[in-house]
């Protein structure tokens, strides 16, 4: 997985916890190939996040910037999990999808409360 850029140590802690939780959940299901595919999507989201912040690009759009990773990765993870769902594994997939949603909600809530130091 690519390394995300952060605007503070607290930002790093919040996003890294979210990424770790989501990856832990989606690693429980699927094949090595499908897991590799979703990790490629995660890398694309991280690239977008990093590019958005180049040269202080988040200025004036702080909440948009802060939510790029949790919102886009949650959508990608949900699509991945729905694509792997079947009648046979529906219960576990529903449980995992709920856990991903909770991780996303917690992350977004913490990011809304993040205080950025002014330089």
Question: In brief, what are we looking at here?
Answer:
The chain is mainly α. It has helices spanning 9-26, 32-52, 62-84, 90-112. It is elongated, with a radius of gyration of 15 Å.
Task: Tell me about this structure.
The chain has helices spanning 9-26, 32-52, 62-84, 90-112. The protein has 119 residues and is mainly alpha-helical. Helix 1 runs antiparallel to helix 4 (90-112), helix 2 (32-52) packs antiparallel against helix 3 and helix 3 runs antiparallel to helix 4. It is elongated and about 45 Å long.
The computed structural class is mainly alpha
Average pLDDT number: 92
**Distance separating the two termini:** 30 Å
Number of DSSP helices?
4
Search tags:
119 residues; 4 helices
List the helices and strands and how they pair.
Elements (H helix, E strand, L loop, with lengths): L8 H18 L5 H21 L9 H23 L5 H23 L7
Helix pairs in contact: 1-3, 1-4, 2-3, 3-4
């Amino acid at each position: 997985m690519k390394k995300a850029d952060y605007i503070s140590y607290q930002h790093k802690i919040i996003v890294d916890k979210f990424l770790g939780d989501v990856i832990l959940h989606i690693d429980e299901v699927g094949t090595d190939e499908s897991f590799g595919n979703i990790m490629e999507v995660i890398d694309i989201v991280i690239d977008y996040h990093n590019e958005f912040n180049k040269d202080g690009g988040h200025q004036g759009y702080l909440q948009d910037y802060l939510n790029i990773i949790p919102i886009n990765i949650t959508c990608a993870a949900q699509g991945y999990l729905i694509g792997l769902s079947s009648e046979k594994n529906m219960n576990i997939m529903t449980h995992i999808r709920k856990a991903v949603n909770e991780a996303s909600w917690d992350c977004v809530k913490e990011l809304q409360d993040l205080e950025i130091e002014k330089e």
